[in-house]
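Predict both folds.
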Amino acid sequence: MTSADPIENLATLIRCPSVTPAEGGALTALAAMLEPLGFSVERVTASEPGMPDIENLYARIGTEGPHLMFAGHTDVVPVGNEAAWTHAPFGAEIANGEMFGRGAVDMKGGIACFVAAVARQIAKNGPPKGSLSFLITGDEEGPAVNGTIKLLQWAAERGERWDACLVGEPTNPDQLGDMIKIGRRGSVSGAITVHGVQGHAAYPHLADNAVRGVIALTDALMHPPFDAGTESFQPSNLEVTTIDVGNPATNVVPAEARAAFNIRFNDTWTAETVMAEIVRRLDAAAHDEKLRPGRAPLSYDIKWAERPSHVFLTRNNNLIASLSGAIEAVTGRAPKLSTTGGTSDARFIKDYCPVVEFGLVGQTMHMVDERVAVADLETLTVIYQTFIERWFGDAQA
């Protein structure tokens, strides 16, 4: 195997069953690709009480600046119903011009292509005039506690500094060259518990129906809209994701009801201000008598999920222009600069250096028969190699 071949790289990685939190041999395989290229490779195991230990990898070539980091993850989601797959989920089989396997696009494919790009660049021009590093976690698809955030802290404590980062997540909706992610919305989750009084449905005046209360609170969370969006972001959006009462009896007024929600917010807000706005809405709704006429203010509790994700937007012209120019030079398409989608580990990296995301087409990620067009692996490798050349050239200009 040559690490300059993205197809072989990806097949090797797919055949490692690295379902989060298991390493599955994927980091060992990646180290075997990088060490012959001259990278110094270190494996870092992170721990947290109550969480599985996670193996991560940090590799670097070069000792001087400028320093470009490539970040990603080798852990994958479970395969689901394996019998529903038309090709073995860890077989890396190729059929009709596509390679099948869990992680093919999310995101072992991106890693395979960047390794190939680096290998070709070193073969062509020698080691970079600066430094290249790989920051690879095994905890992106899991709770993201013992992965990128701790690996960054570990590296920074050792004196590592980066000038820019590319995350190889699958960012393209339909074809390579569609989209670069230059930021992400923030994310906050919470759960509310409404306290009422249990009673007989035929005697509602003797009870206080918690369902009425939870309806009033969730309505206030979803309406009116939080904002109309900004120049770089979609409107903030809150979704109630579950309402639970747990009441099997049709003639009993329940004393308790619970609801959970998640909001994806734009740069109109911070995590702190959007949480304050949510509490303001809940408090106002608790005093609204529309569903509970003549009642005292509603009693409720709110519990916030740990570690909200903060909104960010990358404005580094050199990084964005180098990547956009590389994509257009290879594909002929000018990529859209987007902040759509969910969260990624870029939310941690943005505290250390400018970061953007670009990878494969993501249409089959997490699905049965996850797969990637073999031709896209070669195209992405050429894009990454062109980007490396452009970024180092511009950074040193």
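Second protein follows, with its predicted structure tokens after the sequence.
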Amino acid sequence: MDMEDRMTMYLSRRQALAGLLAIPTLAAFARPGHAAQASGDLERIVAQAIRPVMKKHDVPGMAVGLTLKGARHFFNFGIASKESGAKVSEDTLFEIGSISKTFTATLGGYALAKGAFSLSDPASKYFPALSGSSFERIRVLDLGTYTAGGLPLQFPDEVTDQDKMIAYFKNWQPAFPAGSYRRYSNPSIGLFGYLAARSLNEPFDKVMEGRIFPALGLKRSYIRVPEDQMGRYAYGTSKSGKPVRVTPGVLDAQAYGVKTTSADMLAFLEANIDSAGLDETFRRAVTATHKGYYRVGPMTQGLGWESYPWPISRARLLDGNSRDMAFKANPAEKLDPPLAPGPDRLFNKTGSTNGFGAYAVFIPAKATGIVMLANRNYPNPVRVEAAHRILTALA
């Protein structure tokens, strides 16, 4: 081992002891004799974090993507379909569940950047059918941050079409003053996305697939998977072990409807890590999703993304992604002015459907992001633990 390598190892150990993430530079990866070793080390780190999870939770397949200072690395495990035996790849389409909310937030940021939408407006401004309801006193921001006053996690079963959705919203009464509590809610962010698209005078699906995905450099991301791409679409696994895919529902596209690949998700994370390659409108759209509007326990709620100061302990990250944060109303402290986006933060989002489980996390200051896509819904804390283990091992 030469003196440079000894010094690199020494500094890496010092940083690890300080609890910092220290990723070897791409130049180090590229030196003769180091590329294969670096690739092997990454594969080992990821496999040691992922394979035990798959075994314990009976996950048929997972696609893991890492972006490290602009270099993409893909690690694929298992199968996309038990029926066909097709193997998982970076081009396999997975349901990402509520990570879709970060795309919905980006569409909202795009409408803000275009001047068509305002977070301070009442929700009813963009949807006259809600005139005379509680939504005349609920702001667009309240919907985008789950602070509208206690909208539930899901619509009641009887809400099956737009007319019933309108009737539900018109009759709904807040349990709390807007802005006082955060209660995670598909109807809340779903209505936010619906209104954002209305402000642009286009259907949500059309804006997302026609403008948002292409602008972010995504090549295989969909709300409705085209027929010629169905062969890439993984089958999820139900609790009973049967193949399953997401069931359509009211505002499903806005809340949990994106199907995408680990390759496209890394492109999305890279656009969030550094938006310099986007045009001005989309740079502003991405920035809008990084602002912090409410502090909720250990977590800061933005539009779609949830963030924390970096570095962060494993325990605090788990607390912010806990069951209580997902299923209970939690006091929300308004940040006025909003917390400005900064590189020294960790942004993350979990997502699930009945048959799929996903997690995305990125740290702008480290130019690092991880996406984990699985065709089984397994516990959020397990996902966070696995990603944290990978980040720690990279030190």
